Amino acid sequence: VPFISYLSGLLKTQLLSDDLVAGVEIRCQEKGSCPAACHLCRQAGRETPSPTPVLLEVSRIVPLYSLVQDNVTKEAFKSATMSSYWCAGKGDVIENWCRCDLTALGKDGLPNCSPLRRPVLRLAPHLEPSSTMVALEWIDVEPLVGYKVSDYIIQHKISSPKNENSVINYSPSLLTFVHLRNTD
């Protein structure tokens, strides 16, 4: 099922509220050029390919666990995706709060905790996206203290040949996050 049809179906069955669906936008824009290896962008009589990417953009941040209906799964998902606060000094993360040592206390005597800076999530340069797969690269900006799972705004782009009779179809999309943890 195309993603937008999936959201519409949830709305019709009242499993998804209007404000969540209102956060989804579809826009068409010219965005650069396709790689030479991309067969979708080749057009007869034109030297330079002119792709018309379709951007499906979730413009409002929605916690992923809000889309899960099973209560047990929802609670497990919620605890995994809940934002954590981290110690400025050394300390342990307990649920969504940090327990800091004495060096992490501020002038007021309270724990000096602050959110960890977000890591960078970008397209992996070593693997070209296809119609069924896109590779993302996770780059940490600070040394690991425990672990953190965050919700991100995802953009889905589909390229199609540009001609008068072209019809753009949304293919089924599966988004999978794989967390690779260094055990050294």
UniProtKB/TrEMBL annotation:
Superkingdom field: Eukaryota
Entries under InterPro entries matching the protein: ASTN1_2_Fn3 (IPR045574), Astrotactin (IPR026995)
Domain Astrotactin-1/2 Fn3, first and last residues per copy: 117-166
GO BP terms in the entry: neuron cell-cell adhesion; neuron migration
GO cellular component terms attached to this protein's record: endosome; membrane
Official protein name in the record: Astrotactin-1/2 Fn3 domain-containing protein
Gene name of the encoded protein: LOC107739975
